[in-house]
Specification:
Length: about 300
């Protein structure tokens, strides 16, 4: 297998989900750090302008969104598994809560109290991305007690998963449910000044957080964005053509499509030609002078595919 390359930046909470996933699977990987804010020209050449982080690259195959990254890592490296209880469907269902409503609460808690001390460009970008065009972090700062009141019982749900004596969310071994919870707790712990006091009522969750931190990030070595681009250009996508006879949109290889997250964040559609499609994922072929031909993979859930 070609090297696993993770495009990320250290302060990214969503990247922490994947970094800890690499630790859970005890993997070696190449770490490509990018700016916290677009533009990321080398990465954009490969993805067609997809602006979210992290992105996983293996040769000329590019995997966008943690749903897609986790699914592909499990396929390529099934042991240690992300699903020790053989419950692969449930964690993906849970991710629609953890990556949606709960993450937005964690974002408000992490950013709103310090909005006046953050770079204005970062505030504008993240507010639009997570709260939409009408979002206002200064108003969110005034509303922080309400936000904490919403987040607190949801942290209590996580605590309740551990009071039965489980070391991890669903048993004695860590898995994808732990990654989903960990990156949110990590985000609050790292960015909210009063996190220690706020989380004090959750002793099981705090003990679990220590166990999650101990998993680490596997073994990473740095790589520059230019080097990653050259690897893509020297390779060909390993993804073959695939058709899903039951696809509700009738998508087939060769069709021209655009793909965009179903959010209020103002993301730009990614254009490409369908290469492979199934119930869970879609891969589109793209070409760029700087990286040659690549296959860019997206999950189906949370993304709109439009036939051109």
């Amino acid at each position: 297998m070609n090297e696993i390359i993770i495009h990320h930046y250290p302060a990214s909470p969503v990247s922490e989900k994947i970094r800890t996933g690499m630790g859970l699977k005890k993997l070696a990987w190449r770490s490509v750090e990018h700016n916290r804010l677009p533009d990321r020209p080398e990465l954009f050449a490969m993805t067609g302008g997809y602006r979210r982080i992290p992105v996983m690259q293996i040769g000329a195959d590019i995997y966008c969104d943690t749903q897609c990254i986790l699914r592909e890592l499990e396929r390529r490296v099934p042991s240690p598994t992300f699903f020790p209880n053989k419950d692969a469907g449930l964690p993906f269902a849970l991710s629609r809560w953890s990556d949606g409503p709960m993450f937005e609460l964690a974002f408000r808690v992490a950013f709103a109290p310090v909005v006046d001390r953050l770079p204005p460009a970062l505030v504008t970008d993240r507010t639009r991305l997570y709260l939409g065009a009408q979002g206002d972090l200064k108003k969110e700062a005034a509303d922080l007690p309400h936000t904490l009141a919403q987040l607190r019982p949801q942290l209590g749900w996580l605590e309740a998963c551990l009071v039965t004596g489980h070391h991890f969310m669903l048993g004695s071994e860590p898995g994808m449910p732990d990654l989903l919870a960990w990156y949110l707790v990590w985000f609050v712990r790292e960015r909210y000044a009063a996190a220690r006091e706020f989380l004090a009522e959750f002793p099981m969750l705090n003990a679990w957080a220590q166990r999650m931190q101990a998993i680490g990030h596997g073994t990473s070595t740095p790589m520059t964005p230019i080097e990653a681009l050259a690897i893509a250009k020297a390779a060909e996508p390993a993804t073959g053509e695939k058709t899903d006879a039951h696809d509700p949109q009738g998508l087939k290889p060769g069709m021209k499509v655009t793909i965009v997250p179903i959010t209020h964040g103002g993301d730009q559609p990614i254009a490409g030609t369908v290469r492979a499609v199934d119930r869970d994922t879609i891969a589109v072929s793209r070409e760029h002078a700087d990286c040659g031909r690549v296959a860019v993979h997206f999950p189906r859930v949370g993304y709109r595919v439009t036939i051109c």
